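Standup notes, protein team

Yesterday: finished cleaning the Pseudobacter ginsenosidimutans set.
Today: ABC-2 type transport system permease protein structure.
Blockers: none.

Input for ABC-2 type transport system permease protein:
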Amino acid sequence: MKMIFKIARTELRNLFYSPVAWFLSLIFLIMCAVLFTGVLEPLAKAQDMALKNMPKFKDFGGSLTSTIFIKGGLFDTVLNNLYLFIPLLTMGVISREMNNGTVKLLYSSPVKVRQIVLGKYLAIMLYNVLLLLLLGIFIVSGLFNIKSPDYGLLLAGCLGFYLVICAFTAFGMFMSSLSNYQVVSALATFMVIFVLSKIGGLWQKYDFVRDLTYFLSLEGRAGTFLDGLITTRDVSYFILIVGMFIAFTILKLKFSRMLLPWYKKAAAYTAVFMIVLALGYLTSRPGYVGYWDTTARKLNTIHPRTQQVMASLGDEPVEVTLYTNLIGGGAGRALPENRQEYVWKVWDPYVRFKPDINLKYVLYYDQKDGDSTQYKRYPGKSLKEIAEQASELSGYPMNKFMPPSAIRKMMDLQPEDLRAVMQLKYKGRTVFLRTYDDPIFWPNEEHFAAAFKWLAEGKGPKIYFTSADLERSIYKKGEREYYHLTLGKLSRNALINHGYMIDTLSLDEQEVPADADALVVADPKTELSALSQSRISHYLQRGGNMVFAGEPGKQEMLNPVLKPLGVQLGKGTVVEITKDEMPHMVVPYITWPATDLADDGRLLAQKVKLARQLDTLRALHPGVVNLEIADSGFSVKHLLVTKDRNAWVKAGKLVTDSATPVFSAQEGDYTIDSVSTLISLNRKLGTKDQRIIIAGDADFLSRIRGQNGFLWNAFNGWMNHNSFPIYVPRKEPLDVLLTIGPKPAKLMQVIYVWILPGLLLLTGIILLVRRKRK
């Protein structure tokens, strides 16, 4: 061990007695200084200007630690350019000894090759510590210049930086042992870094090769650390990859002194590689990976609510089968070439808390009954011939895909439109997790949480929609209908994707079922029969939850059943005169009580805006009536209001595609201080907590402008006490303000970009000149 330290000390002395190490340190320091101050100084100016000129400015809103250091900041850019430094540093570590002839002296001395290699690498590791310390100057500065910085995020970033640079130097040292020419060694190091950075995307269609290239790939390894997540899998990877290249260097130097057949040398290298590969496999198995989320807000960890749901599953395994249709929707993201994303990005956060999630895969080809899309695209061809062309195009052999006859015996996927879908099985229960036609493609955490909870409980809330009086349909896909909010399997907001069960009923034919968690009456176009009104009244008297949605001109369809609740749909149509919209397009504010309905991200953001008296979130009503409220024993909360807006009520017929309507008291038009368009009612009825939503407009929940779906989910969550949907809100960042002004930031820029590098340059020159004189 003493010999290793002696060699390391000698190598470190050689490094700092050469201009290369000083030059690299200088360039690295300047790069870090420019990157750090280039972000900090403009932010300081912007904050100072906002504080002086914007009374409502409180903070930047986003994490400044992430902005300055991570997302396109210091760490991110430094790591992306690190490959430019390391080859120049390591190109002479071994080859210099060969060119100077000192390697013969080393071989003739009582020093083992292992000690030589380890000593030299230890010296490089110490130099890497110097680079980390230079980087640390700006990290420490950031800690003082950011209010409540995210310490853990920076800690993980430092560890990731050091592991990456140690890996790069291990590559460079091995390349240096392969050639006496330093330029060749540097180019070879560039090549190795490039190959290992890109190999993760190669040959992903083949199972064994996919796992092999994923283990070897550098891509994304540092990104995990920059996200603030430290895992034993990634730490083990860097340790193993460094150890492998150090072992390769030792073998190369040993074999250069021995006369051995090529196959014995190859066997030794292969043995090292296979040992590292086996250890890498063992350290990345589910259940054997340790995680440390260092971020202050635990951004890399599923929400405690999701963790609680997963804990309720107990020790029983969950089987997940991904069904991929070669000629179906989503095939491009669900084929085996994207398996690593599916395993490590989609499922790993959940496997972390339940290692007995078993992932299975089924590949098939099929066409939905009655769907002629593929036949029109490939005229004159059979389904098998179409699949063969798709197979050839994708590069997968046809025998990997089950034919329609086989897949239909296994599973009926017609209701899922034969697109990429995941089926979860647990204790005989099954539920689907769906994919979506958007850039994210895979389900959100809310969808996972709902699926796990449905598996644990075997049921979800059940909502019935009345259908006997031409109400809005949950089966039609028109823009005024409710399909996309209820049964739309390709809609992320649809209740069916959040654990709900949806059905319709005719109140003329049956009572509201006992299993109903809520009943929805949305824009009936004919008068409700006496029987329907009686059954609604009976349901309300039992403490049932309801949603009523009316429309201008149809107030009398709902007013009879609303009267016992102390609510009436006012006569006329609410008009709001703005420069951009038609007069019936009313845009009321979302109120503070509305933000308490659920922990939806947009409602939480609205709560922050209201607290800061900022311009707040609004919802669009394409035609709405005013809600008139009387005391009836309910606790009433106004959720959408037009307070302080230019709104009034038009009593007569409203013409929307002509000149701007004019207020006329003679025609019955009237104004009120605050037009209420959406309210909630709440009361205790025995042991039940009855909750009711009443809207003066049914279109605001339709696809018109498609922007109010989050309110629909919030209503339903409020009515079932937020058991579904399962919201997973994140804490607001605390590091949202700087503690430094523009003048100190400018001074810091001068010090870091000019003075510090100047001092480092002067130190290097003095040391090198004194060394040369000696």
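Follow-up from PR in the comments: DSSP finds 28 helices and 20 strands in the chain.
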